[in-house]
Each structure stands twice: as structure tokens, then as C-alpha cells.
Amino acid sequence: MPPDSAAVAAWGGTEIFQGQPCIRLQAPQGDSALVALHGAQVLSWVAGGRERLYLSPQAVFDGQSAIRGGIPLCFPQFNQRGPLPKHGFARNLAWRRVLSGGDGDAQSVVCLELADSEATRAWWPERFAAQLTVALGAGSLRVQLAVRNTGDTDADAWSFTTALHTYLRVENVEHVHLRGLDGCARWDAVADARGVQRGAVRLAGEYDCVFQAPAGPMQLLDGAQWLQITQSASLSDTVVWNPGAELCTRLADMPPDGYRSMLCVEAARIDQPVTLAPQAQWQGWQELRVLQAS
Ligand SMILES: O=P(O)(O)OC[C@H]1O[C@H](O)[C@H](O)[C@@H](O)[C@@H]1O
């Protein structure tokens, strides 16, 4: 469905970024976020005067391709774990703005919806409604996905996997520490090896691991910039990804040295797909919060 630009404009807070209709969220103390209708993708989060998300300078904004950076949503399939296009189709389609119904005002909260359509049923036959709510707080950003099976009561249950595929901006990925995953079971997708994480995650080269999500918050230590990352228990996996130098040169929508400036810390549901009976609903969220370094 094409973006309903007129309706979106009537709600205010809209702007065009790289040719794409977007919604600008503003917090009183100066923080802001930018959310594209395409993919319901957060493209920017400025907190404490600093951009916190990585958006590739070579990202493609053609209204069809996945946008490299920000917070893409993988739904209803994570990666290539199924017959659908990689990471599902939600990041390739235009979402529409709906009433948020939540806390906060229209300046700091936006809710976008994607329901099944001819386009989605060409890939996946299920009837669904997905809502992505982005809430900007003082030094925080919370992204919540709610999914409902809108099938008739005598319809079948269906399953999905998902990820909030957050690209965090870092000074130099080889200098960061990601704390909070110590003791978590992990599958290293590069080496195809299972193990348990010991200590903080440090990176040197390509990194692609699916962890059992930690019970508490993680902390990303990037020099003097600290970020707390929390996810709901319903998102039971955490993915940490960086393409490294060699793979990065093969990603057409990233500059060769782009990998240095980003680290994906993804709140995901992969190993145990969510199964929804007709009319049942599920939700999951990730929250990012700026911390004072100590
Ligand atoms: O290039 P994309 O389709 O956006 O996928 C980027 C990456 O997403 C996740 O982090 C996966 O764990 C990686 O295996 C994958 O390469």
C-alpha cells in the first residue's frame, strides 16, 4: 500500500527524509527521533545532543528495499530461517500511522500498523495486524511490536519469528565492550559453534551470535558513552552482529569502513517461534537508555 501522505501530514510532525515520509518525535529537553513509514523503521535517535543510531550513508531509500541502519524490523521471519525473503517482508513495505492509544503525546509517541494485504499474502497466507510503537523519553527510546492473529476464530494458528534489528552508532567497534551477556548460552553463526559467553562481548572481525537473552539489562560501553539496552522477556534471544571489514566490502549499501561505526544489538525471538491462535496477541519491546559513564 502506498504511504498515505495526506493523512500522515494532517497529524503533524511529518517530514520527508531521502524521499520517504517520516514522523519526527520531539522530547522537551531536545531529544528527537525520526521514524519512516517504510518498514516502520526508526532512522535516527538523538539523545543528549548525539546521534545514537547508525544509518549507512549508502542506504537505499527507494520505498522497496530494506534500509541499512536505524532499527529495521524483521517480521514474520528472522534471517533465512524459513521460506520467506530474508528477515521477512515487514521492512520492505509501507506502514500506516494509527492512534497510539498509549501513554505520552503525539510529539513523543508514534504507532504504525501493517496488516495483511494482497502483497503480504503473496508471500505468507496468514491474516495479521502488526503495530510498532516508538516512544521517545528523556534519554530513552522504547520500540514495541504487537502482533495479532486477525484470523476468524475457526482459522488456524500460525507462528512467526522476529527481531528489532537495532544498529547502534559507536566510535570504533573494536573498542566497545558489551556487558550483560556473561553466562548466556550462545550460538556463533560464523563458526557454527555453540557455547556459553564468558565476560563482556568484544569484537575483532565478523561477529554474528544468537544469545539466550539475559534476564537483566545490557550495557554498551563506548568510551565515555554508555547505553543501557533492555528487552522484554517475550523477546527471548539477543543477536549481536557486525559484518567486519571483509563482509562489509560486499554489502553494496554500506561504505567499506562502515562496520567500524556500528554494532547491531537485536532483541529477537528466534529459537522458539511465537505461535498465535486466532484473535490472540503477542508483544515485545526493546528499550535504549543513555547512562552516565562511571
Ligand atoms: O543484510 P541483512 O539482510 O539486513 O542482514 C544483516 C544481518 O542480520 C542479522 O544480524 C543476522 O544475524 C545476520 O546473519 C545478518 O547478516
TrEMBL record:
Keyword Isomerase: yes
Keyword match Transcription regulation: no
Recorded catalytic activity of this chain's protein: alpha-D-glucose 6-phosphate = beta-D-glucose 6-phosphate
Active-site feature positions: H165, E266
Keywords: Isomerase
Domain of life: Bacteria
Annotated GO biological process: carbohydrate metabolic process
GO cellular component: cytoplasm
One of the record's GO molecular function terms: glucose-6-phosphate 1-epimerase activity
Similarity comment: Belongs to the glucose-6-phosphate 1-epimerase family.
Protein name (database record): Putative glucose-6-phosphate 1-epimerase
Species: Acidovorax soli
